[in-house]
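Quick one:
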Amino acid sequence: MRTTMRTIGITVTCSALLLGGTAVATAETSTTDAVTWTPCPEKPDVECGTVTVPVDWAKPNGEKMGVAIARRKATDPAKRIGSLLIDPGGPGGSGVDFAFGADRYFSPEISQKFDIVGFDPRGVARSNPILCSRELSMQAPRSAPTTAAEYEKLKAYNKELRDDCRKRSGAIYDHASTAEVAQDMDAIRRALGEKKLNYYGISYGTIMGQHYAERFGRTIRAMIIDSNMDHSLQLPRFVASEARTTEDSFLEFVKWNDRTASSPLHGQDVSKLWFGLLAKADRGELTDPQDPTRKITADDLIGLAISQAYGPDWPFFAGIIAQLNAGTPAANAFAEDEAVNNPGAAILCNDYNLNPHGFAEFQALSGLGKLIAPHTRGQSVGSNVMNVCVGAPPASNPQRPLNIRKAPKILMENSQHDPATAYEWAVNAHRQSADTTVFLTYDGWGHGVYTRSECTRTINDRYLVDLKLPAEGSHCAAVEPTVGSSAKAAGPVLPARPWALR
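Output:
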């Protein structure tokens, strides 16, 4: 992703989900119709279908909705093991789109032996999407509040947009939490006719896997949760840990320039250059080389720094810094994204209570972020999520420790220098589930582990195919980023929003 999204005000709802024993029994025992498959309009060599589920799982006989799924059938039916359910995270990423390109993401062996099935979680893309006014979305504040008045303005804007989204979307807006997605996943398993689930979830897809393992652990054959969420984190630790991992990613970029002779910044003080560019942006002295009438702001630069770290795309980023510093035309790294309807913030703010208790706490957490992450002035995925959750009602699926008790061993993995799902998140989630998860560390950079190296791919594939897990605490060595590396090369196509966890 090489564009920055400066809109921060997309907001969330309060769900009326009831998580009682009756709902669990209904999810586990109800029947689900088999899927009717047809060629996907966008990609006819892939099959598309729909699984019907309740909008509110606490009312199984109430209003229904369709969860869109797409299937790439195993290329060697004689060696077929089963279905592999996949999700790219977001929140708000399309698993159907992920399935369209799954033959390029997963190894040939996985494509041979599994039907690869992607799904759009409820409220996303083709699954009863949460809709919001495009015009109102474009009016979002473009930077975080620095005064009490700006904070109240953001709070009012978030409420206005939240009300608009709920009015346009209907009942799904109040029933899009990941706890409900986990029940949809089991409905998909049953509709596919699978006794056991194979699952690969990346980023926000890991919290879906975690929730599923807690509730439906007995039905798991194999599960990989790649780049992990920590659903136990309260707001202060959430913001601080995200600031730490953002600063870590920038410092790793600095080290790469120091050791890489081909970098245009090699031998220079990268931090000094960077702070100099931020100062120029503050003074209005930076313009978009592709559009000299538009000023490049410090927020634009910081947004690019955060988003490129997903790859990471260090050669590209170093080139942009060098070109801007020299005043020469640079690649179009600062194009405005078109505002799109996206449920990501609504989902996340319903899975986490991240609404500060007023401007004083917001200001204190913003100050903490600036101390921890000076290179991005405290901005991170976590701080941006806090911005969109300002004024949100209490979450229906709030933070709590991970509690997996009745599941086979699950492969949990994370990059040591992940800019979004902090390594400390995965370490903590593993600590909470040590009896049921085996932890793999990729010693390198970026977001997503599976495609990083022959080591990471081999470990993942052997587990999926043979149920052979690595030794607890295994590591795969880092692979240096190269020219042209990017987040797209490292993982599925993901929502282009730096506030999202992808």
